[in-house]
Structures are given as structure tokens and as C-alpha cells.
Amino acid sequence: MIKKEALLVDNHNREINYLRLAVTDRCNLRCNYCMPSEGINFAKNDTLFTIDELSRLSTILVGQGIDKIRITGGEPFVRKDLMVLLRNLSKLEGLNDISVTTNATLIGPYIDELKELGIRNINVSLDSINRETFERITRRDEYDTVHNNLIRLITEGFNVRVNFIVLENQNTQDLLPILDVMKHYNVSVRFLEEMPFNGGSKKFNTIQWDYKKILEHILSNYPETEKLISPTTSTSINYQIKGHKGTFGIIPSFSRTFCGSCNRLRISAIGDVITCLYGKPKTNLRDIMRGENAEMNVQKEILKAIGSRAKTGFDAQEEHSTVFDSSMTSIGG
Ligand code: SAM
Ligand code: SF4
């Protein structure tokens, strides 16, 4: 592993070494907290980065100090050429951690190659262990496929984290059962607060199920729970229940308690540079990547974007009023 000097430091003295790279805004599911049933106005193909552009862009950013890339979307595996990108990334010197966030519907045929490439960190989004609830939330009949792929990833030794968005009146009855099901596996179940990035289908300014309520609910059933030490840049507060093999985490994604140590940069599938989930894009890199002197110009734009980051998600939100019209499938999560 190569440890490099971090070169990207924002205007609040936070080191930026983690890129969340969206490879598409399309998805084969329609999770109701992410987008409306009819989908969103998906980007036209020629406005999405090609795999070659994504590879070149990653190389530039790794040269600037990024050492961890998470591939996200939309659903990354709807891109038939995703493995070409992953193969390229796996050869990139200085990139120490490649991970993927997926709904696990389409990953099956690629599991062996992911293993061969050494890509072990897979986050699987699963918001219910009950078939009907799963289908109501995702609006698709993919429960068995997701379940089977999840079990396969776990048994094949991947470092699996399950992302469970806590949705009032939809899946809170599954919080304890999912911990029970996962107690024999070396898996981290992460409970995330719901954020209002659903393509405008549902607006809210407060949430009932915040991180405190999620923890209280779990502790009332599992009082013998220990808080774990987490890396300073971790967004999740992590715990282990006595006797459970796995762990769980709670991510205050709406309460935003973690901004002080945020080390993330997001690039959307159409090239928007997003320095905070709650802020508007700082710039767009697509034409720059397609123009002359791409490397130098991308580097400049990235430095400029990182040099003007909002201090917190609340400050970023104040900068523009339309942030909550976005869908997470466009932002990349
Ligand atoms: N399709 C992949 C998946 O679902 O894992 C990757 C993209 S998805 C946009 C990335 C993450 O964002 C997922 O874990 C998803 O559950 C989460 N997400 C989507 N909409 C959200 C929302 N409104 N609030 C909180 N998390 C959300
Ligand atoms: Fe698709 Fe992921 Fe959004 Fe669900 S959360 S609709 S799987 S992009």
C-alpha cells in the first residue's frame, strides 16, 4: 500500500482523500425514498462520462491525493462496462481502497471477478428482510436475487456492509429482526437517517427516526451493547451487541453531526463536482475532460471546488433552495 502526502485540503483544513464516483444515474429499482415510481429525468447517454473518461478522471484525482474511491450511482451494475473501469482502478498505483455501493440485484455474475481484482468492500442496500416490505419500498420483485447475492458475498468473504435507510411507517419494524438475522455473520448493518433527496416526491424538514431514536430503540432490546472506536472520518457511530458476530452503525445523515471531519468529494455521473450532499454542484467536469489540457484543467477545478466548501451540511443547504428537488440516484449517495 502506498501512503501518499494528502494534497487536497479544503478551506476548513479538512483533508479530502475519499471520492464517491457515480457511474450512472439509472437504476433498475425505484426505491420510494430515492425517486418517484416513474423515475426521474435520467441523463442522456452522451452526457454521462464514458468508462475511459471515468478511468482517466480517477487517475487524475488519485494523482491529487485521493486514495479511496467508492463506485456508486444509480445502480453501478446497470452499466454493462463497469468491470472495465474496476479493472483499470485496480491497477491504479496510490489507490488503496476501491469499494462499491449496490442494490445487489445485478452483481451475481461479477462476484468472482471482483474477488480476483481484490475489490472486497461492498455495501449492499437492503431496507427490509421482509419480502412484502422490500417490494413496497423498492417497487420491484427482486427480493430473492438480493437475498441470494448478499449471502453469497458474505460467505465468499467480502467485507459487506448493509445499508438500511430507516423509514418512518415503512420498515422500522425490521430494525431488530435484521440485527437478529445478521448476528451470525461478520457484517456491519448501518442504519441511515432518511434524507429528503427523493426527486421531489416527498418533502420534509424533520425526521422522527433520527440517530438518537434508532439507538434508543436498539438499546431497549439489546442493553448489552458496546460502543466501538471508529476512524475519525467515519460517518457512522458503531456498536457491537454482546454475542453478535457482526456490528451495527448509525449514520446521522440528516442530523449531520459528522461534517467536522468530512473527507469526501462526490462526482456525479454527468460530471458535477459536489463537495457536500446538501449543497449545489460547484462545477462540471464533463466538457473539461473532453477538452484540451484536461488533466491540468481538472486539477484546477478540483482545487477551486475544494477551496470553497461549506463548513457544514446546514451551511451548504442555505446556499440554495432547490437542493431537496434532487434524487439520490443523480447525486450518488
Ligand atoms: N443503487 C445503489 C444502492 O442503492 O446501493 C447505489 C446508489 S444509492 C443512491 C446509494 C445509497 O444512497 C444507498 O445506500 C441508498 O439506500 C441511499 N439513499 C438513497 N436515497 C436516500 C435517501 N433519500 N436518504 C438516505 N439514503 C438514501
Ligand atoms: Fe436505485 Fe439505489 Fe436509488 Fe434504490 S437507492 S432506487 S437501488 S439508486
Short description:
Helices cover 29% and strands 17% of the residues. It is α/β, with parallel strands linked by helices and 333 residues long.
Protein described:
This protein is of the alpha/beta class and about 325 residues long. It has a single domain (about 20-330), classed as Alpha-Beta Barrel (TIM Barrel). About 30% of the residues lie in helices and about 15% in strands. The protein has 11 helices and 12 strands. It has helices spanning about 50-65, 80-90, 110-115, 130-140, 145-155, 175-180, 210-220, 285-290, 295-305, 315-320, 330; strands at about 20, 70, 95-100, 120-125, 160-165, 190-195, 225, 235-240, 245-250, 265, 270-275, 285. A 12-stranded mixed beta sheet has the order 7-8-9-6-5-4-3-2-1-10-11-12. Helix 1 (about 50-65) runs parallel beside helix 2 (about 80-90). The longest helix is centred in the N-terminal third of the chain and has 13 residues, at about 50-65. The structure holds S-adenosylmethionine and iron/sulfur cluster. S-adenosylmethionine binds near residues 27, 73 and 163.
